[in-house]
Amino acid sequence: MKRIEEVVRALRDPETGCPWDLKQDHASMAPYLVEEVYEVLDAIDDADDEALREELGDVLLQVVFHAQLASERGSFALADVAETIAQKMVVRHPHVFGEDSEVGDAAWVLEQWEAGKRRRRAEAGASVLAGVPRQLPGLQRAQRLTSKAAVVGFDWPDVPSVLAKVDEELAEVREALDAGDAAAVADEIGDLLFAVVNLARKSGIDAEQALRGTNRKFCERFAYIEASLSAAGSSPEAASLDEMDTLWNEAKRRRPGRPVQD
After folding, report:
1. What is the mean pLDDT of the segment spanning 181-200?
2. 208 and 137 in contact (C-beta within 8 Å)?
3. DSSP letters spanning 213-245
4. In which band, very low, low, confident or very high, does the pLDDT at 123 lie, cut at 50, 70 and 90?
């Protein structure tokens, strides 16, 4: 940790640092942080420890860099970041670090964590929905928001009732399409996606993970189409839809392989 701090300080040295690094601020670096986190997720999906080690290092660099920027303006340093999260973990795990020795299962621990956050937000007069980052991917944010609303009873009673809502929203998409109203189509598709996220949540499924899995399957199967066409001296551009559909169905029957890399 000392070594990476030294490296980042050198990069930010006003006299001898890197011109690119010296131009950066929190806002300009934010997209890189998001990108690096997604690359960590790719490494986890691929069960690739070597890639995971490297990608975690890239995320760590972002943390150190942001802490360095804050340190330069006298706000906080990396040690303060570490101490803050350490204190938070201790406070939120009284069954480990405190006198409260009662310990349930993993679900119990999660509920205690969420209950503590709700209590602190209530004391501060914050919304039940507070604390869900606006920058989360849409599916993930929708699931987090509705999970929080469900805790206070604002939820469908069961899966069939959510399925009925999905059917209702799909019908409204069709109506908007028939009317040729682009703005209404966008609005209704958003409502449909929101209803599907609730269906996933009520079924115990993480919607973001489910869609990522489907994206991965699509890439694998389309890669099979490309490889098969290439072996036959053809390409997707030259092939007919029927040809590609036939290969797609072949790919579905094959055992899934390693995820295709972007």
Report:
1. 98
2. yes
3. HHHHHHHHHHHHHHHHHHHTT--TTTS-HHHHH
4. confident
Contact status, residue 202 vs residue 158, Cβ threshold 8 Å: yes
Q: Indicate the helix (H) or strand (E) that contains 211.
A: helix 207-231
Burial class (CB in 10 A: 0-12, 13-18, 19+), 208: buried
Asked if residue 92 lies in contact with residue 116, where contact means CB atoms within 8 angstroms, the answer is yes
Of all residues in the chain, the percent with pLDDT exceeding 90 is: 77
Q: Report pLDDT for 255.
A: 62
The band of 147, judged by pLDDT with boundaries at 50, 70 and 90, is very high
| Tokens at 54, concatenated | 């490297």
Q: What is the pTM of this model?
A: 0.71
The burial class, CB within 10 Å (0-12 / 13-18 / 19+), for 142 is buried
Name the token pair of 226. Answer: 């490309």
Q: Is 143 helix (H, G, I), strand (E, B) or coil?
A: helix
Reduce the DSSP state of residue 130 to 3 states and report it.
coil
Distance in angstroms (rounded) separating the CA atoms of residues 111 and 117: 10
**How far is Cα of residue 191 from the mean position of the Cα atoms in its chain?**
20
Read off the tokens for 130.
């507070």
Q: What contacts 240, CB < 8 A, 6 or more positions away?
A: none
Sign of CA dihedral 25, 28, 34, 35: negative
Nearest-angstrom CA–CA distance, 156 and 93: 31
